[in-house]
Design goal:
With 47 residues, this protein is mainly alpha-helical. It has one domain. Helix content is 81%, strand content 0%. The chain is elongated and about 50 Å long. The N and C termini lie far apart (40 Å).
Length: 47
């Protein structure tokens, strides 16, 4: 899906593999951050 989105928006013209890796890393960081925040919210509710 990421490859298709990058291709549809013609980004980047060169270095597509690097761009995909960057996007995947950002998605992983975002997901980790969301899970961390949700975990903190659940702990606050149960206390």
């Amino acid at each position: 899906m990421i490859r298709k989105l990058l291709k549809d928006h013609k980004y980047p013209p060169e270095g597509m593999d690097d761009a995909i890796q960057t996007v995947m890393s950002q998605c992983e960081l975002w997901a980790d951050n969301v899970m961390s925040i949700e975990g903190e919210n659940n702990e606050a509710i149960s206390d």
